[in-house]
Each structure stands twice: as C-alpha cells, then as structure tokens.
Write a structure and sequence with these properties.
Layout: H1 2-25, E1 35-41, E2 45-46, E3 49-50, E4 59-66, E5 90-94, E6 97-101, E7 107-108, E8 114-115, E9 121-128, E10 133-141, E11 156-162, E12 184-191, E13 197-206, E14 212-219, E15 222-224, E16 232-236, E17 242-244, E18 249-251, E19 267-269, E20 281-287, E21 295-300, E22 306-310, E23 315-317
Parallel strand pairs: 11-19
Antiparallel strand pairs: 1-4, 2-3, 5-6, 5-9, 7-8, 9-10, 11-20, 12-13, 13-14, 14-15, 14-16, 16-17, 18-19, 21-22, 22-23
C-alpha cells in the first residue's frame, strides 16, 4: 500500500515536471499560454464509506489548466506579427474549417493571402466606407492585392492664403507670362482621371476698387474659365474677411487634358482667404487628387483595422 502511495506521488510529480518543462520549452513561442497541474488526494474507502483509520491512497493529477492571462507584447520588424491586447482570438480558415488562435505570427502566401505557419488563412470582416464600419455578418480571407491602387482625379482645391491689402492695381491687363500684370501667384500639382500630374497655377490681380481682386487659373499654361469668364472676383470686407465668392467657392469650367483622360472639373475653396496688410502668401494649399500607386506596406491601427499603404500616399482598409 505504501509503495503504491509513493508511486502515485512520483507519477503526479512527473506530470507536474512535464507541464513545467513544456512551459519552459515554449517560453519564446508566440501566443503560447502556460499550463499548471492541479492535484487532488485519493481517499481510502470501504463499503462503509471513507475510513477514519486508514491512510489515504496517494495523489493524482485532476486537471492541467491553461492560464489565459495577458502575455508580454514584443515589437518586431514584420508588420504582420500581430498581438491581441486583451480578450479574443484570431480567426483562421483551413479549407472551410474555422479555428482560433492567440498566435499572431503571419505571412503572405503566393496568392496574397495572409496565413499562419500552417497555411491557415486569417479571417477579417469586410470594410465599408474604407474602414469607418464593417460588414460583421460575413468573414472573409485577408488578401493583399499587388494591383496598383487606382488614381483619383482632382475635384477640389483648398487655398488658405493672404493677399496684401497694400498692393496697387497692375498697370497692364493680365498676362500670365508677364509678372507685372498680377500681384501674386501660387501653384500646385493636380491629377487627371488617369493619374497624370498637371500644374495648376492661380493668379491674383488687384482691381481699381478697394478690397476687390480678380483671380485667374491656368492648368499647364492653358487658361481655365469660370462660367465662361476669364476670371472670378474675390471681395473682402474692411476687416479683411472674404465676402465674395458666396460660400467661398469658385467653380471652374471643365478642363480637357491631353492623353485621353477625362475632363478636370475643379472647385477652389477660398473660405479661409484673407486680405491683411502683410505680405501675400499661402498657409494652406491642398487638393484631393492623386496618381496611381503600388502597394508599399501594411499598417494595422490600434482598433485592429488593416490598411494597405500605397506609394502615392494613400491607404485602403482591407
């Protein structure tokens, strides 16, 4: 009897050592959760119940439990090395069978799917409105496409600038090739529907009437009209705030670029334009178009949204 009790202790201790050894062996395994052995004593029993005079019958392992506590999060150079901070699992698809893991070591296979070391495909919810919401009813494979990101034609320009109120009206009629015929100009790059860049230049000429300016625009040296007129009018009040155009927007007529691209129809937002007694200059000049771009990387934000990053500076939720 004593021999069997001793053997039960050795057997339980051996199991505990195996659990401890497994924990040590997996100390650097991504997503590994350590285990602990739980023991219970074995009572000596008879037909009359538990004996009050007989020694116990030893010990046994009743459970080996995993400890699902938050582990350390380490940083790597691989953007697809992921970690879950808190509860939850990564969802994987293995030919239609769904599985779950805390291990976040992923890579891209030859088909562009994000997979784990066994080739199981990482599942995500499909994004809506570039990641502002998601279709949570259906899971799909996370796939990185190598196709170029599509270009976007420029439709809007934001121009926050100041025009020097002390400037005088030019003596000659406007001619973009003659600097003396306008008071200030600024340029930026805009894009057509094929992603080709074009230079858009805005010119500003003071008129004979106080606080009123004429603004002209050219794309690649070709004048662009406003409702058929060569220029638009900008008017400021006595405090230097913009009055005209109403709403601050100048809507230009369509410009037909060469090369088979569609027309460029742009609106310039001058809402933040001012006329103060300081040097003319731009403090905000931006536009919403961009060229095509190649996939350059993958970013994942703190909420778990996966974004493809392109060489044109754009990103798209995956």
């Amino acid at each position: 009897m004593s021999f069997r009790i001793a053997l039960s202790g050795l057997d339980a201790a051996s199991t505990d050592l195996s659990v401890t050894g497994n924990n040590i062996a997996n100390a650097s395994t991504t997503g590994f959760k350590k285990s602990s052995a739980e023991f219970a004593d074995v009572y000596a029993t008879s037909f009359a119940g538990v004996s009050s005079t007989t020694a116990g019958s030893g010990v046994r392992v009743v459970a080996i439990n995993q400890q699902f506590t938050q582990g350390n999060i380490n940083f790597t150079d691989n953007n697809l090395d992921l970690a879950l901070n808190g509860e939850g699992f990564f969802v994987l698809n293995d030919n239609g069978d769904q599985s779950y893991t805390r291990s976040g070591s992923f890579k891209v296979d030859r088909d562009g799917n994000v997979v784990d070391h066994a080739g199981n495909r990482l599942q995500v919810f499909s994004p809506v409105n570039n990641g502002t919401s998601f279709n949570t009813g259906v899971l799909q494979d996370l796939t990185l496409s190598t196709a170029d990101g599509a270009p976007h034609v420029t439709t809007s320009i934001t121009a926050g600038l100041n025009l020097d109120s002390s400037q005088a009206q030019p003596a000659l009629a406007f001619d973009s090739s003659v600097a003396e015929t306008y008071n200030y100009s600024t340029s930026l790059t805009v894009y057509d529907s094929l992603g080709a860049p074009h230079t858009s230049t805005m010119f500003f000429a003071k008129t004979a009437v106080d606080n009123i300016w004429d603004t002209f625009m050219e794309i690649d040296g070709t004048p662009v009209t406003v409702g058929g007129a060569a220029s638009a009018t900008m008017q400021f009040d006595q405090s230097g705030a913009l009055i005209l155009p109403a709403g601050g927007n100048v809507v230009y007529d369509a410009f037909a670029p060469p090369g088979g691209a569609g027309p460029i129809s742009m609106t310039i937002d001058y809402t933040n334009a001012t006329q103060f007694g300081s040097k003319s200059g731009v403090n905000d000049l931006s536009q919403d178009g961009y060229a095509s771009g190649r996939l350059s990387g993958v970013d994942i934000d703190s909420s778990g949204v996966v974004f493809a990053r392109f060489t044109n500076g754009q990103s798209r939720a995956l």
